Amino acid sequence: MSLEQGKTPRDNVEFPKGAVTMVFDGNGGARMVDADSFAGFRAAHGSPAFAWQHLMRGHPDAAGHLAAIGLDEFVTDALTAEETRPRCTVHEDGVLLNLRGVNPHPAAEPGDMISIRLWVEAHRIVGVSVRALDALEGMVSAMLRGHGPRSPGDFVAKLALRLADRAEPEVAELTERIDSLEERLLGEDDGEARAELASVRRAAILLRRYLVPQKDALLALEIEELSWLGERDRAHLREAADRVVRLGEELDAIRDRAQLVHEQLLDQRAESLNRRMLLLTVVAAIFLPLSLLTGLLGINVGGIPGAQSSWGFLVVCLVIIALGSAVFLYFRKTGMFR
């Protein structure tokens, strides 16, 4: 079966919910073809042409279709696994590559990254994802406009770069949020700031959890001795890995800055608590001798000074005021209020 009967390229393509099949001429050209003809694709001897088919793992016959196009059980199980982490595994003359992309849904959690599993050979690529990803949509549109990959390695590099491009706004947003938190650090009410800080730290940790292993997967592929991986492909893979490395470094910086802000918030809270405790201590220290005096005058025994005098209460009040003022001035002179 041949792939010569292709569909007419369009400038804008709606990414199908089922399978996407494309054939590339190795010179930047690409066209969409019938999905059922992927299994029969054969590139001419010496031709740089290759084909790509992308499936959704949730399709009920996804595993059966992967087996029908000639993939062995090891590859099929890896492409349809429930949970994956970014990795690069060489199997015969092909590579199993797991990447992660940011979930474009506005309500998605930062750690809810969509996995893309790839089986890459010299003349064909099989991709599987759990959900649709806007990076793939944009990539398909660019391919149909004449910006297709020139080799399977170039395909992987372009995809990795697009995934990094989609992750950059998320990292930039985290940077802006930590900047805002640092500006609000001196505010009186830090309750909201602590909640925001926890959210930023969690998002940075979850994004870094997948981006750093993704860098390792791309670098591992770049150094593998594969017959279909050329020097140009390796250079593009290094570029994609460098982009992911930069994102990882920015996430590390965000995490470190969040830790510093957290420590400053704790110091600010401790300082506020210390000021309140100092105030309570000074008040207690001022009223301690006054309480002693009033306690002595209030005992129910004879001989209390001024008990029979009409000026007794006034004298006691003046003594209390004088004693309290003396204690207050003493504490102020010794620096207790600083």
UniProtKB/TrEMBL annotation:
Superkingdom of the organism of origin: Bacteria
InterPro entries documented for this protein: CorA_cytoplasmic_dom, CorA_TM1_TM2, MgTranspt_CorA/ZnTranspt_ZntB
Keywords: Cell inner membrane, Cell membrane, Ion transport, Membrane, Transmembrane, Transmembrane helix, Transport, Zinc
Coiled-coil intervals: none
Stored Gene3D superfamilies: CorA soluble domain-like, Magnesium transport protein CorA, transmembrane region
Membrane topology, from the record: Multi-pass membrane protein
Subcellular location: Cell membrane
Membrane-traversing stretches: 278-299, 311-331
UniProt xrefs under Pfam families: CorA (PF01544)
Primary location group: membrane
Family, as annotated: Belongs to the CorA metal ion transporter (MIT) (TC 1.A.35) family.
Protein name: Zinc transporter ZntB
